[in-house]
């Protein structure tokens, strides 16, 4: 049932501020919201909702509410009602982003702008790793030689499986060629469901150190065998090279700025200038007609960068990349609201070695 309310403004200036809403984001959106507020050009009133009443991101908001768990087929209606109730100008979705994108016209009709990096067709492709990898495997360019074409992108070797027997076959095929193996759900976010297959994870010694996302093959196989069929998993080679998280700013398929963030030991990150990775980001931005802020994950196999995924949203660690001098969250909003005619983006500062420590937030 739709709900509305009369809103009383204690401060007349409140009507001037752009009203933006974050729905059910991860905890580190706390940094994203504060980065948006820390600018000298626009004032914002930030609304937040989350199913976890103790989420840190809510404490950065000017107004927040606790979300109930809402069925996906009803979620867009909830969002439309929330936008009407609070007169939202910009909606920055996280939960159910695909269904929200599918109904983008409904938000446009009530005057709400969506900060989503691409249209529904491309978003659906980026959200399904099997479709995404298949697309990349078949994307070629003219090599300027007669009847010759070259692949644009490299991806890890992979298999899509949905039963334990095929999981075993995929694993055997990978390791017989000397590859280490890992797996993750075809549809997932961040590191959810990601596991590295490592026989040392079953050793006595592993009980005495942090093993994180590692699992033995037998343990994984035993768990997957509990069901005759399960949701699609991608079983793929595990690359031992450096991983990069590339935070990007763009408009209508044109890359404006990119900051590659190299993952070193523990929580150490290096903001590293890379012409190779910037060109890669530019090509992907053009092919998928990307805009605003999003993130590209790459891992090296020797000297070859292999694409892992494109996150169609700001990354959880984008605030680290902002130490380069590029305020990705605010500039993405500015692009959405005003375009790029008066946009000034400084050259990013690189060769910054960064770490992080826990900081308390009073709930």
Question: What does this protein look like?
Answer:
The strands form four sheets. Strands 17-16-13-14-15-18 form a six-stranded antiparallel beta sheet. A five-stranded parallel beta sheet has the order 3-2-1-4-5. The two termini are 31 Å apart. The chain is globular and about 65 Å long. The longest helix has 15 residues, at 72-86. α1 crosses α11 and α7 packs antiparallel against α8 (217-224). Helix content is 28%, strand content 25%. It has eleven helices and 18 strands. The protein has helices at 29-37, 72-86, 97-102, 104-109, 120-127, 129-137, 164-176, 217-224, 275-287, 318-321, 328-338, and strands spanning 18-23, 44-50, 63-66, 90-92, 113-114, 140-142, 149-151, 158-161, 180-185, 195-197, 214-215, 233-238, 243-251, 254-263, 269-271, 292-301, 304-311, 352-354. The chain folds into three domains: 12-115, Rossmann fold; 125-140 and 241-354, D-amino Acid Aminotransferase, Chain A, domain 1; 158-238. β16 and β17 (304-311) form a beta hairpin. The model is unreliable at 1-10 and 145-149 (pLDDT under 50). It is an alpha/beta fold and 363 residues long.
CATH superfamily descriptor of the largest domain: ATP-grasp fold, B domain
Q: What form results from the Cα inertia axes?
A: globular
| Strand order within the widest beta sheet | 17-16-13-14-15-18
**Low-pLDDT segments, ≥5 res:** 1-10, 145-149
CATH architecture of the largest domain: 2-Layer Sandwich
Report the span from N to C terminus: 31 Å
Mean pLDDT: 90
Approximately how much helix is present in the residues?
A: 25-40%
CATH class descriptor of the largest domain: Alpha Beta
* CATH fold node name of the largest domain: D-amino Acid Aminotransferase, Chain A, domain 1
Strand content: 25-35%
Major sheet attributes: 6 strands, antiparallel
């Amino acid at each position: 049932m739709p709900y509305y309310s009369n809103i009383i403004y204690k401060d007349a200036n409140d009507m001037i501020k752009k009203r933006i809403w974050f729905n059910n984001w991860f905890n580190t959106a706390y940094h994203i919201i504060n980065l948006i507020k820390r600018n000298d050009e626009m004032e914002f009133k930030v609304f937040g909702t989350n199913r976890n009443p103790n989420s840190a991101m809510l404490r950065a908001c000017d107004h927040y509410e606790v979300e109930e768990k809402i069925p996906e087929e009803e979620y867009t209606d909830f969002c439309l009602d929330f936008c009407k109730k609070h007169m939202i100008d910009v909606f920055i979705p996280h939960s159910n982003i695909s269904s929200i994108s599918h109904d983008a016209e409904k938000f446009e009709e009530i005057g709400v702008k969506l900060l989503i990096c691409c249209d529904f067709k491309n978003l659906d492709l980026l959200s399904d790793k099997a479709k995404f990898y298949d697309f990349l495997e078949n994307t070629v360019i003219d090599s300027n030689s007669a009847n010759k074409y070259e692949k644009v992108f490299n991806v890890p070797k992979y298999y899509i499986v949905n039963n334990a027997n095929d999981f075993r076959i995929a694993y055997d095929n990978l390791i017989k060629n000397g590859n280490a193996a890992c797996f993750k759900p075809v549809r997932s976010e961040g590191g959810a469901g990601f596991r590295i297959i490592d026989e040392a994870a079953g050793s006595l010694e592993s009980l005495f150190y942090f093993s994180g996302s590692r699992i033995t093959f037998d343990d994984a196989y035993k768990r997957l065998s509990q069901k005759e069929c399960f949701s699609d998993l991608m079983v793929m080679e595990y690359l031992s090279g450096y991983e990069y998280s590339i935070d990007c700013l763009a408009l209508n398929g044109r890359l404006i700025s990119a900051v590659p963030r190299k993952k070193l030991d523990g929580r150490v990150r290096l903001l590293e200038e890379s012409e190779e990775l910037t060109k890669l980001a530019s090509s992907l931005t053009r092919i998928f007609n990307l805009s605003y802020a999003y993130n590209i994950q790459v891992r090296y196999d020797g000297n070859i960068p292999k694409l892992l995924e494109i996150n169609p949203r700001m990354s959880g660690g984008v605030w680290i990349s902002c130490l380069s001098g590029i305020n990705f969250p605010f500039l993405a909003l500015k692009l959405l609201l005003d375009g790029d005619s008066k946009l000034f983006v400084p050259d990013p500062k690189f060769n910054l070695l960064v770490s992080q420590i826990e900081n308390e937030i009073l709930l």
